[in-house]
Design goal:
By secondary structure, this protein is α+β, with helices and mostly antiparallel strands. The chain has 9 helices and 20 strands. 25% of the residues lie in helices and 27% in strands. The strands form 3 sheets. Strands 5, 6, 7, 13, 14, 15, 16, 17 and 18 form a 9-stranded mixed β-sheet that branches. Strands 1, 2, 9, 10, 11, 12, 19 and 20 form an 8-stranded mixed β-sheet that branches. A 3-stranded antiparallel β-sheet has the order 3-8-4, with helices on one face. The longest helix has 15 residues, at 61-75. The chain binds flavin-adenine dinucleotide.
């Protein structure tokens, strides 16, 4: 197939959760949108490799606001979006050893407004976290506002919504060239050229590379490898009520998962954009940290995997028009929070692309739009 296709109003590049959610929101308001994905499977990269947690107290302030703003969508998605609930409740415990108490106090100050968070110490801590080694932790911040996300349902729901609304999804369509001809973007793929008035860069770990293709500013995006794996739970352990347990300095986390334990060293190792694989050293470090903290002895490692969490310097997402390339919109830098915040970010970006004001429910969560615009990075020109 080759030749120039009919013009679209918006071309979204990258069909992970960021691109799929925005494309679906745009299609719902009748915007003629094409969604281009280089892989066969839209969730092949970071979106399909997450730990599936919704935590409104995790991440920098703009992410926490957008995650709170996403909650109404998670709890009440459009009719026909999915067949079951998108969220299922799990508690989260941010644990601190004696030498980490300063970090716990800092976090406690940051999330002081969250009514779902309380402090657990001493005997109560051991009672509520029986898997922890005796004497390992001094205190925890306990959150009852956390959930697990059905990521596949969320992602497929958005893709279905997009297609049902007349959106065009093209997979195996790597964008190889982007040219602004003074009126429209000409987008080169192996299947031919497309034209669109606006290009949205939702290319995940590749976002800075795609930006360079378009002549946009660099946002200083660093993809960082994070590894996770599954292990058996200790024999006879009752996993009901075991919370997602996170080291307060993010040195590890552990989560019950279908009768097993999902564990991670919570690593952030810089990598070029790629189909990243877990490193043997990540796995060894993970096992060591988990065995130090928990009454767990790892006999066998199952299904290790890794994905790229992509950050700019301040760890907030980059959402807004480029200051350098006309009609080029950034939707990047979602880091380790791109699933939980996706509905909020998509609603924000769709409104901006339609030329509307920031939706009231997002403003109500105290998002400062300047904290996510590319211009804040000071590298616009
Ligand atoms: C181990 C791990 C645990 C995580 N846990 C959580 C969690 O618990 N909760 C949470 O909210 N987040 C979590 N995250 C982060 C979350 O997964 C990401 O923030 C999110 O998936 C980013 O989505 P995305 O659409 O930006 O990126 P991606 O899913 O990577 O999508 C980008 C897409 O762009 C495509 N693309 C790139 N270049 C081109 C091109 N030139 N042409 C066409 N297509 C292109 C790629 O193929 C890719 O499919 C975790 C991540 C990891 C790795």
């Amino acid at each position: 197939m080759s030749g120039v296709n009919p013009a679209y109003e918006i071309a979204v590049i990258g069909a992970g959760i960021a691109g799929a959610s925005l494309a679906a929101e745009l299609s719902a308001s009748g915007v003629r949108t094409v969604l281009l994905e280089q892989e066969d499977q839209p969730g092949y990269h970071t979106t399909g490799r997450s730990a599936a947690v919704y935590s409104p107290i995790y991440g920098p302030s703009p992410i926490r606001a957008l995650t709170r703003a996403a909650l109404p969508f998670f709890n009440n998605p459009p009719q026909g979006f999915c067949t079951g609930p998108l969220l299922s409740r799990i508690d989260a415990a941010f644990v601190a050893r004696e030498d980490q108490m300063e970090h716990l106090e800092t976090m406690a100050r940051e999330v002081a407004d969250a009514s779902t968070v309380s402090r657990v110490e001493g005997a109560a801590l051991k009672e509520r976290l029986p898997l922890l080694r005796d004497g390992y932790a001094m205190a925890a911040l306990w959150d009852t506002g956390t959930s697990e996300i059905d990521v596949a349902s969320l992602h497929h729901g958005y893709l279905r919504m997009f297609k049902t609304n007349g959106g065009v999804l093209k997979t195996r369509a790597p964008v190889m060239g982007l040219m602004w001809d003074g009126a429209v973007w000409i987008i080169e793929t192996p299947h031919g050229s497309l034209t669109a008035n606006i290009v949205v860069n939702a290319a995940g770990a590749w976002a800075d590379e795609l930006g360079q293709m378009a002549g946009a500013e660099r946002i200083g995006l660093t993809p960082k490898r994070r590894t996770a794996l599954m292990i058996d739970a200790p024999a006879g352990a009752d996993l009901r009520g075991v919370p997602l347990t996170i080291d307060v300095e993010e040195q590890f986390y552990l989560k019950p998962d279908a009768g097993k334990l999902l564990i991670s060293p919570a690593n952030e190792d810089p990598e070029p954009p790629c189909d990243v694989q877990p490193d043997e050293m990540d796995i060894a470090i993970c096992v060591d940290r988990i065995e130090r903290a928990f009454e767990v002895s790892v006999k066998r490692v199952e299904r290790p995997w890794a994905g790229l969490r992509s950050f700019v310097a301040d760890k907030a997402p980059v959402v807004g028009f480029s200051q350098k390339a006309k009609g080029f919109y950034w939707l990047a830098g979602q880091g380790g929070y791109g699933i939980q915040s996706a509905p909020g970010i998509a609603q924000y970006a769709a409104a901006e692309l339609r030329g509307e004001a920031v939706p009231a429910h997002i403003i109500a969560e105290s998002l400062d739009p300047a904290s996510i615009r590319p211009g804040r990075l000071g590298i616009g020109q």
